[in-house]
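re: ur question from earlier - yeah i can do the single chain one, its not a big deal. heres the input i used so u can compare w yours
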Amino acid sequence: MMRIRVLAAVKFIIRWIWGFRIPRIHISRDAYAFLVLTMISIMLDFIVIAIGLYAINVNNHKFCQVITPVIQNQVIKPVNPKKTPALEQQWEWYQRYVSLDHSLGC
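and the output i got, formated as tokens:
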């Protein structure tokens, strides 16, 4: 008798939490197969995205190891860029590498 009252109380609490009785939904086998394949596809998409983000993070770390020694020697901006276009271009590339270094968090 006590067991029946406990089960009734549990059912009452569950119905109170949900606010209604949970209806059973009948779906065809085709719809169920489509649902399962869709869920598997979504899970595989998340796995591929996670693997891609990991690979990008590893490549960024390798790139940081390469670029940090390159930008250690500071390039000074030329006073007259028209007379020394090579130094101007070298300074522009240095600025690009420095900004890339900071954006990658090196």
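The radius of gyration is 31 Å. not sure if urs matches, ping me
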